[in-house]
């Protein structure tokens, strides 16, 4: 009798299990969400680093979005033009010639020896934490060198060298993660219309006198560069390169040579080293 009870209970459970399995199978078929095969094909072309540079949460979200709206082709900075062409091929479209690739430039060139410090900092070793503390680094516009940008970069394209963030342009994909990570907004994404771009490597808005006291290589708002070339404009007490109309010429080279603090430098894959701070250009020999 006891065996029969156990058998009936087991059979009942087995029967219920089979019923539930059938119900779940039917539900999975009825409720199945069809995935556009193009979405899967597009995702296969992406670098799948989920950097968010495209404006979406990850590569899967971007793949779905770009299939729905092909205008988004080209939004994948790490993939570059090669990925754009592959996506266009999947969608049976042609990609028009795009603009110059955006790459980061850092508006600071001050290494540890160039900066004035008011106090040592032994707290959380991040730029964000340091930036919240007053009077650690005299210049409140300079790179703090704790590497929030290097942590954000998934391509090992930024390194802290002598207290300054430096971009490795051979590895950089233009994903914008570093620019978003910098708490002082020192990193600007710039269209690299040339292999090397001229940069005013400073963000200070202090007076020239105050900047000199805090940093050996800061912009002192002398406006000499703007007098030598229309490629430079003033933003308050800070000079800026006009990237919308960027066209280096004899005037810009003169501005580099005449800059009293050597704050105007080139950045890029084959950029020449900056002139040492305070070093005057060699006089041109007279014929």
Features:
single chain, 287 residues, alpha+beta, 3-methyladenine DNA Glycosylase II, Chain A, domain 3, Alpha-Beta Plaits, 2 domains, two-stranded antiparallel ribbon, 10 helices, 13% strand, disordered C terminus
What would you say this structure looks like, in words?
This protein has helices at residues 2-30, 37-45, 59-68, 80-90, 127-131, 148-152, 177-181, 208-214, 224-228, 250-258, and strands at residues 102-106, 158-161, 164-167, 187-191, 196-200, 232-235, 238-241, 264-268. It is α+β, with helices and mostly antiparallel strands. It has a two-stranded antiparallel sheet. A two-stranded antiparallel sheet has the order 2-3. It has a two-stranded antiparallel sheet with strand order 5-8. Strand 6 (232-235) and strand 7 form a beta hairpin. The radius of gyration is 28 Å and the shape is elongated. The termini are far apart. Residues 281-287 have low confidence and may be disordered.
Proportion of residues in extended strands: 5-15%
Q: Please tell me what the overall shape is.
A: elongated
Name the strands of the widest sheet in spatial order.
1-4
Task: Outline the low-pLDDT stretches.
Answer: 281-287
Beginning-to-end CA distance, first to last residue:
122 Å
If you compute it from the alpha carbons, what radius of gyration comes out, rounded to the nearest whole angstrom? 28 Å
Output mean pLDDT.
Answer: 85
Helix and strand succession?
HHHHEHHEEHEEHHEEHE
CATH topology call of the largest domain: Alpha-Beta Plaits
What would you say the CATH architecture of the largest domain is?
Answer: 2-Layer Sandwich
Helix content: 25-40%
Q: What's the CATH class of the largest domain, please? A: Alpha Beta
| Number of individual domains | 2
Largest sheet: 2 strands, antiparallel
Question: What is the β-strand count?
Answer: 8
Q: Pairing-aware structural class of the strands and helices? A: alpha+beta
Number of helices: 10
């Amino acid at each position: 009798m006891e065996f029969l009870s156990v058998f009936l209970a087991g059979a009942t459970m087995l029967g219920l299990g089979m019923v539930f399995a059938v119900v779940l199978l039917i539900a999975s078929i009825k409720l199945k969400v069809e995935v556009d095969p193009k979405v899967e094909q597009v995702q296969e072309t992406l670098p799948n680093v989920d950097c968010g540079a495209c404006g979406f949460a990850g590569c899967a979200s971007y793949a779905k979005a770009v299939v729905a709206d092909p205008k988004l082709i080209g939004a994948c900075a790490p993939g570059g033009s090669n990925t754009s062409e592959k996506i266009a091929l999947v969608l049976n479209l042609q990609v028009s010639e795009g603009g110059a690739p955006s790459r980061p430039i850092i508006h600071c060139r001050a290494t540890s020896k160039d900066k004035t410090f008011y106090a040592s900092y032994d707290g959380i070793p991040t730029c964000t934490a340091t930036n919240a503390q007053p009077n650690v680094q005299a210049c409140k516009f300079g790179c703090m060198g704790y590497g929030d940008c290097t942590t954000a970069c998934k391509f090992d394209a930024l390194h802290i060298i002598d207290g300054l963030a430096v971009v490795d342009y051979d590895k950089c994909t233009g994903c914008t993660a570093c620019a978003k990570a910098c708490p002082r907004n020192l990193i600007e994404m710039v269209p690299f219309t040339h292999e090397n771009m001229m940069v005013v490597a400073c963000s200070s808005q202090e007076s020239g006198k105050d900047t000199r006291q805090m940093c050996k290589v800061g912009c002192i708002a002398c406006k000499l560069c703007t007098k030598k070339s229309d490629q430079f404009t003033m933003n308050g007490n800070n000079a800026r390169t006009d990237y919308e109309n960027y066209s280096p010429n004899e005037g810009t080279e003169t501005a580099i040579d005449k800059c009293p603090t050597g704050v105007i430098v080139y950045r890029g894959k084959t950029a020449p080293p900056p002139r040492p701070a305070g070093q005057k250009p060699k006089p041109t020999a007279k014929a």
